[in-house]
Amino acid sequence: MPLIDSFNGIKIYIYNGDHRPPHIHAAYNEYEALITISELEIYAGELPSRQLKQVMLWFSENSEWAKEVFYELNPELK
Fold this sequence. Notes:
Elements: E1 3-7, E2 10-13, E3 23-28, E4 31-36, E5 42-46, H1 49-73
Antiparallel strand pairs: 1-2, 2-3, 3-4, 4-5
């Protein structure tokens, strides 16, 4: 599970061999949320609201790059 970024105690992962929809795993302490890259929706797990806001801010600058990394690690899903 490649760590692609970390900030303020939040770690952003994209797994190789993962599944659709394209998403990231955002982890903070004991919390983890799977967030879709296109819709920016949590579809599994949870994060505290403060950390979720930080992840959404991260997405505002990195969503295209995250999508590229997701498909690079999961080319069979393209």
